[in-house]
Amino acid sequence: MEKELFSTLPVPTWRWLGVNEVYLPEELQTLPTPVRKIQIDVPAGQHVTQVIANRTEQRTEITAHVAEGGTLQMVQLQLLPPDKAGTCNVEVTAEKDAQVYYTTAEIGASRVLAQVKIDLAGDGSKADMAALYFGDGTRSIDLNYVITQTGKKTEANMQVRGALQDSAAKIFRGTLDFKAGSKDSTGREKEEVVLLNEGIRNRSVPLMLSAEEDVNGQHAVSAGRLDNSRLFYLMSRGLDEKEARKLVVGALFATVLERVPDAELREKISREVEERIEHGQR
Amino acid sequence: MAETLLEIHDLHAGAADREILKGIDLTIQKGEVHVILGPNGSGKSTLMNVIMGHPGYQVTEGSLTFEGKDITALKTFERARAGIFLSFQTPEEIPGITVENMLRTARQAITGKRERIFGFRKELKEMMEELQIDPSYSERYLNVGFSGGEKKRNEILQLLMLRPKLALLDETDSGLDVDAVQIVSRGVSKFHNADNACLIITHNARILDKLKVDRVHVLLQGRIVEEGGPELVDQINRDGFGHIKETTE
Amino acid sequence: MEQQKTFVEDIERTLYDIRNEDHSVYKTERGLTEEIIRDISRQKKDPAWMLDFRLQSLEKYYRIPLPVWGPDISELNMDDIVTYVRPGGKMAGNWQEVPEEIKATFDRLGIPEAERTSLSGVGAQYDSEVVYHRVQKELSDQGVIYTDFETAVHEYEDIVKEYFMKLVPPKDHKFAALHGAVWSGGSFVYVPEGMHVDIPLQSYFRLNAAGAGQFEHTLIICEKNSSLHFIEGCSAPRYNVTNLHAGCVELYVKEGARLRYSTIENWSRNMMNLNTKRALVEKDGLIEWVSGSFGSHVSCLYPSSILHGENARCEFTGVTFASRGQDLDTGATVVMLAPNTSANINTRTISKSGGAATYRSAVKVTPGAKGAKCLVNCESLLLDEKSRSDTLPVMDIETDDVEIGHEAKIGRISDEAIFYLTSRGIAEEEAQAMIVRGFVEPVAKALPLEYAVEMNNLINMELVGSMG
Predict the structure, then answer these.
(1) Among candidate residues B80, B102, B83, the one with its CA nearest the CA of residue B92
(2) CA C67 to CA A185: how far, in whole Å?
(3) Counting one residue from A and one from C, how many pairs have CB atoms under 8 Å apart?
(4) pTM to 2 decimal places
(5) In chain B, what are the domain boundaries?
(6) Distance from CA of C65 to the nearest CA of A (A)
(7) In this predicted complex, what is the ipTM?
């Protein structure tokens, strides 16, 4: 059976790194899985909030269109059971002066593939993305986020926070693409990943593409263990190492989680992450 | 007989179709020290930038005359060569260009003469000592990694090395501790003599301690609304701009 | 507000564009066949193992497909490349013996002058063959070997056999295979244990014949606790046909040794520069790359450092300047295999007049590389709206005990920086040039003075500013 391509790096690089493309997980292909499709239309000047807490749907496709001056606030939480694979594909187009606030958390599933593409098509449009992922056990996480800046005076911000433990593996591809004519646009991208033990595999691929001179783009990645001095500080206040880790990872995730409007959901995700740091994956 | 250095006549200027300066008249003679006071957003920094020829602002009406010559259409570097200097409120960080390299290039550009490396270096070293700047800073990249106070002292170092005729000091004393204000103030008084002039924006009268202020202008919403002698500085430090606002509104 | 535009004129190339008539005594047929390989091997009086190596490489070359990533190299037709061009005259150890015309070329480029003033040894390659090679007697007396590669194959056969294309095996990629089949010329350097070569060695590569390829092989071995600075310069005159450069550089940095490898590359704008450079660094060793890419039509160049021993280090400093008609894809790769290895990668790219510059890198940290540290900083400057600049780094980390940081910026010269400098009396053109020079300063600083001057000459910018 021919493998079905799920997503590709916008510009390919060396094959040996294995980051150029990702195919649909076999289990979703051999047992054809229905695709849940969600269409969101934000009318001009309107504000729409959409929260999706996904515990069952293995394949999701979301398309959204934000008309002039509209605001879309979308929260997409992946909470699938730990023995299921899942994919999620999101495409958003933002017209003039439209704003997109996209928040996502990748918490569950055995293997997850997520793609988010935001096109800042209109002048003055803005995308503010915050994502977190927690990989433990043998979980494999594959993320491909792309913000395309086509309009003038667009603003992109992609903040990604993650933690990996046990033998989890993750690939994060994050692209800021300044198209010709996207004058006076800015783009920021940052991934911070905390590596909690040996045996993990972390691949980070931040791309910045520019065909326009009058832009200001920056991206950064930092990867490493928990800051020892911070751990020491907390432990000197009486926390044991696991408690300290929970606290530090919790702080790392807090800026993403606080964008989730539902307090109960926020609490549930924090608790689940803490428990899995404490006891390993259930 | 005093010679006129800068004459601003009915100056209207702004940025992106918004008028900020709405008819400024100001004359500065050689040997004088002028102070501009005004609340935030009154147009003080804009006035400094327009005198220096910042390409982000357009003059829509009026004129600027320097030593009898109309400089309204001159570019920034031509104004600098004519003898105008701006001490920036937030000096730019420019990696890869050392303080010494920039200063020598600038001085050669202004005087049109080649600078001898050793003589120049000696003079630079003396000035840095005067301003209590560590000598290693001459080899550092322009303002890169400098603290706020170091940047301001570096501006005064440039003032002393380039010896302009008119120094525009835009809040050169803001964000400095008491000692640093003293150093900067000494630097400015060292610069000032009968052949040159200073135009100073300040929120902190201490920088004026070592200078004899000739004229004070109060700027409000792009217009000079009150003028007077040095006593105006004390009065505004004491009472704020409240009474002026009331009388103009 | 009127936009202020910056125009940076093309690099002054006239010096490099003087071409000589093609007086080569021997040329292979166009294209690549086994017969040609046997022919080259015969001409070079290769030992039998080398002929076998070439033929096996050719097999691989046929099999391996072109890369699927990177710049478009479809215009490269291997059948049109004359792989082997031998200039007239023999290799000389005395500058006076070098044929007049070739000598004049190198004289213009300042090569023997550089030797007189500041180098321990010089090699010069013209098309496929090394025409001049010389090393200071004091050095050769102490066991330092610096010679052309053909001589090395015969005189130091055992060493060559042990190291040749072990670091860059022909199966690596199509152009490595090509190189294995047709390599010709290049330099061989051997620095014995504990020996410090204080003054740089330099090789200069010049491609004169139209439609030719240059496939020089550079092999440097720095034994334990030795040190060396090696400089490589490249240029070619401009022709309307495509030239190909597929050289290969293999550097062995043994325990506690330090090697600095500096390159200023200024191939003409019809050159496909598909070069492979790799260093293997043992315990406490240090490889420093200084890489300036200014010329060529297309470049794919990513010097790679394999940090094999504990505490092995890599410092990479690169500047790439892409102008009209250029697609320069440059960067670095680092593979960290041992504990406490570290790497610093610092690059600057500039694009103008429709040029495209890409920074591409890979940092791989294997499970055994506990305590590894890697910092990457790349900045890109776009000087006009016709040009493009892309940044494509990959980090692949397989252990937790690491500190990995990557930062990149892309943008234009800030109007405020220009205003600041012009407010000090500096004219706009000069202010822009100062900012561009300041931008590449990290590389200029890492170069010996003469090369820093050469680089500044290369960026001999005539800036034509226009204030709206």
Answers:
(1) B102
(2) 33
(3) 134
(4) 0.84
(5) 4-92+165-248
(6) 13
(7) 0.94
